[in-house]
Amino acid sequence: MSDLETFRAEARAWLEENCPAEMRTPARSDDDVCWGGRNFVFQSEAQKQWMDRCAAKGYTVPDWPKAYGGAGLSAAETKVLRQEMARLGCRSPLNSFGIWMLGPALLKFGTEEQKVHYLNQIARGEIRWCQGYSEPGSGSDLVSMQTFGEDKGDHWVVNGQKIWTSYADKADWIFCLVRTDKTNKYQGISFLLFDMTTPGVTTKPILLISGSSPFCETFFDNVVVPKDQIVGELNRGWDVAKYLLGHEREMISGMGGDGGTSAIGGAFKEMLGEEPVLRAQMALFDVDNLAFRAHGERFMDEWKTGKAHPAYSNLMKYAGTELNKRRHELVMALGGSEALEWDSERTRGGAKPRAWLRTKANSIEGGTSEVMLNVVAKRILEMPGA
Amino acid sequence: MAMILNDDQVMLRDSARDFMTSEAPVSHMRKYRDMGCKDGFAHGLWKQFAEMGFTGILIPEADGGMGMGHVEAGIVLEEIGRNLTPSPFLTTAVAAVEALKAADKAMRDRWYPGILAGDAVISVAIDEAAKHRPEKINARAERSGNGFKISGAKQFVVQGASADMIIVAARTAGAAGETDGLTLFAVDKDSAGLSMDSARLVDSSMAAQVKLDGVEVTADAVIGDVDGGWSVLTRLLDAGRVGAAAEMVGVGSGAMDMTFGYLKQRKQFDRLIGEFQALQHRAAHLYGEMEAARSITLKAQNMLDEGHKHAEQYVAAAKAKAGLACNLAVREGVQMHGGMGMTDEYDIGLYMKRDRSLNEFFGDAWYHADRVAQMNGY
Predict the structure, then answer these.
(1) What is the pLDDT of residues B241-256, one digit of tens each?
(2) Does domain A253-380 have CATH number 1.20.140.10?
(3) In chain B, what percentage of residues exceed pLDDT 70?
(4) Mutation test of the interface with chain B: which of A269, A298, A318, choosing the one with the most B Cβ atoms within 10 A?
(5) DSSP state of A168
(6) Which CATH code for domain A129-236?
(7) Do the Cβ atoms of B280 and A383 come within 8 Å?
(8) Rounded distance between C-alpha atoms, residue B118 and residue B329, angstroms
(9) Which fold, B230-375?
(10) How far apart are CA A144 and CA B355, in angstroms?
């Protein structure tokens, strides 16, 4: 047996032993997602058990080094572990912006002290992070942001406002872009970390068209941030932010399949027989979906071997989000009038229309489709012009 | 199964690319078009293909070939597509070779050496109507003495008039619409009762309408099992479809690169037209579609090579996606070239014509999207 197959057998045995039965059923709603953090209310004992067991084993962040709370797995082993988790139907033990976003940035730009401190907290699900990037006047043109940190010797005093801060009202800490030099647009931004309970931090949820409030407005009024809570160099926070955005966009494309298929039309066979035009749309969607999954798989292979263009994740973000919006348009069309109910029990509180509306943000958050196309045209295709 | 080419495959790609661009670029295709060549390709070039080892890529090593897979065949086809190189590669070295793998040794010995030498050309006769519907094959082969008598009408037999042998799919049992009861036959071009009406297509390739009027073949002409031809035909078609997809990835990429080059040198309103965001966004979208087409095609080739249980679905998706993306590339290409795109002098129009033929060959995007739906149970 190869080393990898030995590992597969071990991982499978561990998962079978340690993953509670309840955690092997699909998540029914957002409430079933474990986000961890100081204020998180676990839905069940099993949910907490599953997170804690994985954290102890390093499996909340399997590919991080052991010193930082991971299991130190290679890329191949991580893939095997994910395959085995998928095979058993295990839920994700811990979802977190700390794992997906801040972690990779810290691994690349953080000091050893920062890595040991913050990464272990993230891996154990102790601290829930949010991201402070966009501002009311700085959306697609993010680098025009104005939130300012005034240098007071051993600390900064931060004033300003962020918007679209995901789960700011539930997060414990924020990683935040703060202007530390007003004279230099790109090289005048720093990447700061601070506690959301620091005096002067307030949040206000934004009610969305989906009826939920995953995003907040976040206000900073003379917030004191110690100088050791900066990631990377002073005024070079844009480098960290760009790296992290790349990671965020890459994440979206990380859904390459194992050659299985995942059509949404199969469940509607009877009905589609009488809807030839809708059926055709479904078929074309499935072709594009299979192509996108193969594309994601190829991109990951190229990324891991350093063959992918650095701006390629922008293309994947554009393709993946537009496809997801199309998927939910079709789900709504397949559901017909029954997919319109907004709060009935039988529709689990209007799960379909709420999910459909939520997807409309996919091509706005993390860089709009239009910005993605600009980046692809200029950086990959090297089209002329500013 | 990695979704990136290994070192050997990169070498093959580089040599195929060098070969096509030096020996058979678009000007080669123009030359044979303009002389009204009745084959639609150059036999000399086919010999050169053989010298390069291309014609034996899919032929097993035990039969004297290279024993490589659909990924490698696709690498050559992409370069063929990019240069609009006319050749019998897809029909003979891909579709026919794949079918002949199901043939007995005597038949393989009869045809493989000629293919390996670049002498033999083999066509496939499947379609019987304007649209590709292999399950509806109605040509009949009735038992007659020690062999069969084949009658029926075939069309879109690409390079049929140049072929030494034609693989004919005919019904030995059952009725049109059934997959059981089909049989594949190797029919010699000089057979009595075989007549052909060859015509030039929009892309300057040649295709024949073939009439079979009681064509007599011996039992040795059967490829695979009598009445069990569907599995051989599926093999032939999957190879042909994923091959056509690879060629369309080449055609689309060639058209796209040419168009992007044009955007970077054509000036209007005192600036390069590639500076206009309206064109940049369309260019970026097109690039994404071509990349997706390239990915699903590579995935399908890999899956065919490993005999994956979902290979057929991925081949269908690849043929559909490559068809849609390549079609977008040539339409955007002609539009973005403006008036120049309408001229015969510029090459972009030739890419549009080739796309049209390849999209129809072995079933179009709509047909294959429909198959994807069926394979998913709706």
Answers:
(1) 999 999 999 999 999 9
(2) yes
(3) 100
(4) A298
(5) T
(6) 2.40.110.10
(7) yes
(8) 32
(9) Butyryl-CoA Dehydrogenase, subunit A; domain 3 (1.20.140)
(10) 46
Among A295, A302, A385, the residue with its CB nearest the CB of B275 is A385
- For the segment B315-374, what is each residue's pLDDT rounded down to a tens digit? 999 999 999 999 999 999 999 999 999 999 999 999 999 999 999 999 999 999 999 999
- What b-and-e string marks burial along A149-166, b requiring 16 or more CB atoms within 10 Å of the CB? beeeeebbbbbbbbbbbe
Of B285, B310, B378, the CB nearest to A259: B310
Q: What would the pLDDT profile of A139-153 be if each residue is shown by its tens digit?
A: 888 999 999 999 999
Residue with the two structure tokens 């002949």: B100
> Which residue intervals of chain A bear CATH 2.40.110.10?
129-236
State whether CATH 2.40.110.10 applies to domain B124-226. yes
CATH number given to A3-95: 1.10.540
pTM of structure? 0.89
CATH number assigned to the domain with residue range B7-121, chosen from the 4 options 2.60.40.10, 3.90.1750.20, 3.30.470.20, 1.10.540.10: 1.10.540.10
Residues A38-78 have pLDDT tens digits of 999 998 999 999 999 999 999 999 999 999 999 999 988 99
Chains A–B, number of C-beta pairs less than 8 Å apart: 151
| Cβ within 8 Å, pair A290-B317 | yes
- C-alpha distances out from residue B321 to A267, B162, B299, B305, B325, Å: 23, 31, 12, 20, 6
Q: Provide the ipTM.
A: 0.95
Interface residue A258 vs chain B (CB under 8 A): no
Within the 20-49 window of chain A, which residues sit less than 8 Å (CB to CB) from chain B? Answer: none
